[in-house]
């Protein structure tokens, strides 16, 4: 029988153990949060690990080879739906007088900046983790510089960097994990591969910008452009039409596996028409060809499967090449007097017209038919292909919910609801966090959402913005765990109020 003294000793030891575990958790997570202060992705992962139980092990009914076959056949099915032509169906672009024929060699300083200025993203195919690679950069720099320059000058992208490591991810956490169609591929490439790509991409982008060869209505992969500038351009046009008592139509186009079906001969022909030639064009051809992927799942790895089409997922150069591949779509849309704006593979069409115009429907239908024809010729699948365009009072556009009155009330409601969810969950783990760690999480999870595309809110009355201000007030009180008046808290945190943040963003964009 347990004596009172033994029970008391046991309870004391249990309390000491519990205190030690709690203290260890606090120190562990605070250290991780502080180290990830400038990395929102890592902060989100830490936040999720604090709140969530570990995910269940992968379904045993699915194997790595099953995913490899599924991802491969999905692209093959899309490709088989196109009618292949003997000629290259791209709209010819005028060749600029200057041509980009060779890459300039890089210095050790240039390569060092490429290695150290980007977040390490280690791939399972790498023998040396990218974080360690950055640490030993001074020792290996001459060899990496030689590798980069040798590749760019010899028209050859290293074949050892052409294998992608793919991990299947559920499209949504609520989907059935036993259904293979519910997964999408997440591709990783070696860090050194991306270093060579950045060297090529920087020089290629400079040539395109200096010669005004980029579509002014394409906002991806361009300095000073973002999803926010793309949405702002479209939104301002719609507001101007509304002020002039004109009606407007906004059409959002969705592509299926767009970057995976890019046709290499068409892409290379388009690049040549822009003045990219010689060694540079041959290097890009080498970069695209001979690629393969393998799938890692449940501790197993599939056999490599070849990639005959597409630009590499998870790559540095891929998004730029895709935007150049689709550049000839703009004239097709403009021929029907419709305006457009693109961000990567997201294309927005918009048209303003007098309410009495009876030809609008016919113009839109004709434009969509020509777009469909262009997509077929360029081996891109418009998703869904044959669906009749129907009207909707709201639509999610690059992460922002737009409504037919341009009030953004639905978007404000969605942002407020999402932020309240994160504030609730951060409050649950506050006992494990210091004030500074709590502030970092709130800024990453809540303030980032209040700031996303907030220039679209310029001009709205204070009453419309009030729900967002209430969220910021609650966030400030959570950081300090104080119920008092919020203005001193915002001042101490150096947080501008929501309305001032909107004005500040607008001034930055105008400047």
UniProtKB/TrEMBL annotation:
Residues 150-402 form the Reverse transcriptase domain. CDD domains: RT_nLTR_like. SUPFAM superfamilies: DNA/RNA polymerases. It comes from the Eukaryota. InterPro entries: DNA/RNA_pol_sf, RT_dom. Pfam families: RVT_1. This is Reverse transcriptase domain-containing protein. It comes from Anguilla anguilla (European freshwater eel).
């Amino acid at each position: 029988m347990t004596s009172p003294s033994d029970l008391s000793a046991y309870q004391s030891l249990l309390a000491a153990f519990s205190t030690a575990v709690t203290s260890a958790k606090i120190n562990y997570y605070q250290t991780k949060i502080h180290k990830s202060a400038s990395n929102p992705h890592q902060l989100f992962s830490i936040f999720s690990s604090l709140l969530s139980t570990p995910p269940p092990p992968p379904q045993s009914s699915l194997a790595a080879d099953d995913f490899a076959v599924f991802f491969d056949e999905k692209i093959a099915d899309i490709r088989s739906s196109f009618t292949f032509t003997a000629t290259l169906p791209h709209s010819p672009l005028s060749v600029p007088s200057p041509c980009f024929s060779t890459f300039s060699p890089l210095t050790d300083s240039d390569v060092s900046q490429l290695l150290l200025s980007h977040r390490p993203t280690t791939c399972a195919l790498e023998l040396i983790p990218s974080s360690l690679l950055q640490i030993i950069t001074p020792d290996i720099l001459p060899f990496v510089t030689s590798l980069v320059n040798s590749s760019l000058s010899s028209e050859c992208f290293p074949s050892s960097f052409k294998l992608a490591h793919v991990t299947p991810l559920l499209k949504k956490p609520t989907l059935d994990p036993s259904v293979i169609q519910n997964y999408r591929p997440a591709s990783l490439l070696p860090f050194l591969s991306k270093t060579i790509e950045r060297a090529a991409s920087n020089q290629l982008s400079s040539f395109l910008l200096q010669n005004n060869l980029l579509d002014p209505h394409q906002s991806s992969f361009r300095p000073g452009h973002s999803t926010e500038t793309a949405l702002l351009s479209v939104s301002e046009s719609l507001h101007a039409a509304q002020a002039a008592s004109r009606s407007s139509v906004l059409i959002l186009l969705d592509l299926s596996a767009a970057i995976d079906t890019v046709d290499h001969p068409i892409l290379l022909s388009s690049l040549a028409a822009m003045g990219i030639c010689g060694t540079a064009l041959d290097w890009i051809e080498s970069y695209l060809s001979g690629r393969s992927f393998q799938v890692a799942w449940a501790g197993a790895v599939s056999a490599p499967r070849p990639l005959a089409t597409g630009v590499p997922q998870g790559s540095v150069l891929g998004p730029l090449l895709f935007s150049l591949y689709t550049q000839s779509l703009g004239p097709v849309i403009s021929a029907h007097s419709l305006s457009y704006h693109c961000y990567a593979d997201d294309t927005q069409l918009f048209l303003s017209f007098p309410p009495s115009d009876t030809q609008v429907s016919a113009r839109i239908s004709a434009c969509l038919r020509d777009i469909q024809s262009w997509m077929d010729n360029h081996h891109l699948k418009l998703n869904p292909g044959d669906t009749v365009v129907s009207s909707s009072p709201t639509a999610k556009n690059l992460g922002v919910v737009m409504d037919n009155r341009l009030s953004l009330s639905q978007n404000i409601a969605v942002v407020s609801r999402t932020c309240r969810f994160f504030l609730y969950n951060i409050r649950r783990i506050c006992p494990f966090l210091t004030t500074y760690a709590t502030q970092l999480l709130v800024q990453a999870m809540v303030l980032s959402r209040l700031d996303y595309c907030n220039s679209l809110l310029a001009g709205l009355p204070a009453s419309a913005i009030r729900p967002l201000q209430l969220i910021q007030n609650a966030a400030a009180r959570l950081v300090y765990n104080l119920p008092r008046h919020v203005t001193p808290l915002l001042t101490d945190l150096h947080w501008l109020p929501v309305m001032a943040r909107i004005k500040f963003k607008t001034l930055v964009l105008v400047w």
